[in-house]
Amino acid sequence: METKNKRSTFSGQLGYVMAVAGSAVGLGNIWRFPYLAAKYGGGTFLFTYFILAITFGFALLISETALGRKTKKSPIVAYKQLGAKKLQFGGWLNAIIPMLIVPYYCVVGGWVCKYLFEYITNNSASLVNDAYFTSFASSPIQPVFWLLVFAILVFSVVLLGVEKGIEKCSKILMPTLVIMAIFIAGYALLTPGAIEGAKYYLIPDFSRFSIMTVVAAMGQMFYSLSIGMGILFTYGSYMKKEIDMEHSITQVEIMDTLIAFLAGLMIIPAVFAFSGGNPDTLNAGASLMFITLPKVFNSIAFGNIIGIIFFLLVLFAALTSAISLMECCVSVIQDQFNFSRKKCCIIILAVICILGIPCSLGFGVLDFIAPLGLSILDFFDFMTNSIMMPISAACTCLLIIKVTGFKTVIDEVEYSSKFKRKKAYIFCMKYIVVPGLMIILISSILSTLGVISI
Known about the structure:
The chain is mainly α. It has helices spanning 13-24, 27-39, 43-71, 75-81, 88-120, 130-137, 142-159, 162-189, 194-202, 211-224, 231-237, 245-275, 286-299, 303-337, 341-360, 376-404, 406-414, 422-431, 433-448.
């Protein structure tokens, strides 16, 4: 465990890439990407997502990482050091967002633990019942218990520190996750009728292309890459000066896009085969993961084994993201109060319990609390993902454009990289990123209010 005052670091480029990729590869890749890809024409959505990831996504990834490495601090202190008095709000947003996300993320991580447990104990037949998930989620005890199980797993890794905990864990979980994803995708393609689903997913249908395809892909890319939530600042601050930043960010983009692609490949063909080609069965969120997919696994050979592997994969994805969120919170508290890592971890675990337990009970005991007509968990998700994160990322852009100038980021990147995409970076930051963030913000609000469908 690192000393109280010394800044942690990743051991090298591989450790950084695996940790950031682990942060990026989360539940959003696995249950949201396939749904959006199916809804917006398969290959057309994939192509749009890829273009946005290497332009819009890259610009924000490199910006937050460079500012983190330059200051060697978490967002609040980084903004101060960079002289952003009028934009200090952005630093606080970057710090607060993970503290609001990690509690409800642990709730969903707990659901994954519960389903994995049912598959391991050979009780998967009960999961096929539509009422099972509702009954479990509305229980006054079980969701809280599994929330604590998942939270303690995350706490244990973060407590060990950056190199011995997060880096070591990510180096094991990420390659394993990729191998499992390839295995399940391969198996799904062998399911009778799955090839039609694969064609739908992989072959572009440009007749279905619309502005909403771009909006949906932009929103997914934004959430998927851990942008605007302080993680990239924090992990950038742990990056050694000699690590090639541009190459590392490119590897993160490739890893994240690969997992998202594989998620679609392992889910869309299998669900299509199960439903007879009806894309309406590919719902977003919990209904896909905890209701539709158990039915699919139950209908195929070796379904229980596939279920175990799949939910283990989802658990790994959830863990790597939750670890990054908690580490970001720990870094903020350490920078603000100079507490030990152990004390910071205990504080965040307490926050997870204080905010996470109401979220876990929001589908049963506390279902009468419904801000904006949403459950407590969905409300936290809406406020962080749809409102706070785009504003937070916009603040970072304004910090660079109006305060530090592009030279600050460019010099930091060029300290260890050739920065081959420098011209593309400047163009995106000047003309694409801020309007794009406003589109994400407005469309997310309109979608939640039911005005448009994403």
